[in-house]
Amino acid sequence: MNKERFIKNFLIVFSVLFVVVALFFLTQMSLTGKVGLEIEDNVLTIGIKSGELIPKKSVFIINYENETEELKFKEFIKLSDFDLKSKKDNYYVENVEISEEGQGYGVEGENEIGEKGFGKDYLGEDITKISLDLILLNLSNVQSVFFKYGDIVIVSSEDENVDDEEEEES
Fold first, then answer.
1. SS3 98
2. Do 6 and 73 sit in the same domain of this protein?
3. How far apart are CA 57 and CA 70, in angstroms?
4. pLDDT tens digits for 114-150?
5. One domain for residues 52 and 27
6. Do 98 and 17 share a domain, yes or no?
7. What is the domain extent for residue 89?
8. Is residue 85 domain-shared with residue 135, that is, in the same domain?
9. For a Cys-Cys bond, which of 36, 56, 99, 152 suits 47, CB 3.0-4.6 Å?
10. Rounded Cα gap, residues 90 and 119, in angstroms
């Protein structure tokens, strides 16, 4: 009877530990910037969560047909014809370390007492999507895109081939 009780307790403890570890890894996998980036049919779409303010000086690094093109975030907003005005505040991108202030683009979020602004306390669930057809820039066969501010990669499209090529060049 003691052996049965030991096995039962062991299975319960093991099951609980398994669930805790699984939840830990699942949450860790999502700990990248919440700014979304998508390329489909040569259309580049970025999703900005309410409460995020992305530096105006950020750039898209676009890899296509063995070439690289840089597109400033400011130009992306202008070419997309999306009515998004730049604002001066502390930059904030969920789960990305940017501790500066300046002009940026974003959608204000709302805190618990109804004030509007940018930052962790204002972060909401709403996502604003902005798209641009890269054909307008004479870019086709886009392989990958990195969205960066200085040395900080805010978000990138996932393309294993590009990672392999970069490792070979190093």
1. coil
2. no
3. 12
4. 999 999 999 988 889 999 998 888 888 888 898 888 8
5. no
6. no
7. 36-158
8. yes
9. 36
10. 7
pLDDT at position 18 is 60
Number of domains composing the chain: 2
* Cα–Cα distance measured from residue 41 to residue 44, given in angstroms and rounded to the nearest whole number: 9
Alpha-carbon span 101 to 88, nearest angstrom: 7
User: 147 and 118 in one domain?
Assistant: yes
Same domain (yes/no): 8, 80: no
Tell me, yes or no, whether 142 and 85 share the same domain. Answer: yes
Strand order, beta sheet including 101-106: 53-55, 101-106, 87-90
Same domain, 24 and 45: no
First-to-last alpha carbon distance for the chain, in angstroms, is 62
- Distance CA(50)–CA(21), nearest Å, equals 31
Residue in 113, 118, 69 with CA at minimum distance from that of residue 89: 118
Measured distance CA(152)–CA(55) in Å, rounded: 11
> With contact defined as beta carbons under 8 Å apart, do 162 and 150 qualify?
no
Which stretches of the chain score pLDDT less than 50?
Answer: 22, 24-33, 159-170
Q: Are 39 and 140 in contact (CB under 8 A)?
A: no
Q: Are strands 67-72 and 59-64 parallel, antiparallel or unpaired?
A: antiparallel
Q: Provide Rg for the chain, Cα atoms.
A: 21
CA 65 to chain centre: 24
Q: Count CA atoms within 13 Å of residue 156 on its CB side.
A: 15
